[in-house]
Amino acid sequence: MSKILIVMSAASGWERTDGSVYPTGYWAEELAAPHARFVEAGHTVDFASPGGVLQPLDRHSADPEVAGADCASHVAHAQKALREFGPLLKLDEADIDDYAAVVLPGGHGPVVDLHQDADLGRLLTAADAADKLVGAVCHGPAALLSAVDAEGRWLFAGREMAAFTDEEERLFGTAEGAPWLLAARLRERGAVHVEGPAYEQFNVRDRNLFTGQNPASSTRMAEDMIAALG
């Protein structure tokens, strides 16, 4: 079986255009559902983040009115998985040769730090060059923006992908005051961004890149990656 690296943001707040800070953290379902599927399939999962910082839980992902009736089980699984893994790996020490796949879950954190993290950019560039699998869900595709070359060319330009849509950001109440919107930024950088209905499962595969639009797309992303891993 394979080893899979889940790269988490280290951000606990998202600074808004008015200077206020919106509390953020990892979204439970986007971490728990893929982790559960990978482990059930016999794969080993490691966790890493910038500096090895353990990001807090996004409390919205523990609210049934926001995250659905199953959110408590996702929170419990995520917390147990992180607790049992222990201290997170430092992203700058992660060796892509150890892994068959890299997964980027959301919460708003990736639009704060991972989108411009040079260590992640190098890791993703090496992963893509070796044809390893890359998965990203909801705001996780923001982290793909880190993969630029010395001339600023984006590795994933021209690739088809899903991500949290501008419509979903507006419906969630976080579009106004956002420094930038994810789907719009991906299109600006050259992604072929495609989307399904708001908050419904929608997934896209483009060669070794597996993306999901929102939390409801987390399980399918993992299942598609498991099938590709064989």
Automatic annotation (TrEMBL):
It comes from the Bacteria. Residues 29-226 form the DJ-1/PfpI domain. Keywords: Glutamine amidotransferase, Transferase. GO terms for biological process: methylglyoxal catabolic process to D-lactate via S-lactoyl-glutathione. GO terms for cellular component: cytoplasm. GO terms for molecular function: glyoxalase III activity; transferase activity. This is Type 1 glutamine amidotransferase domain-containing protein. It comes from Streptomyces reniochalinae.
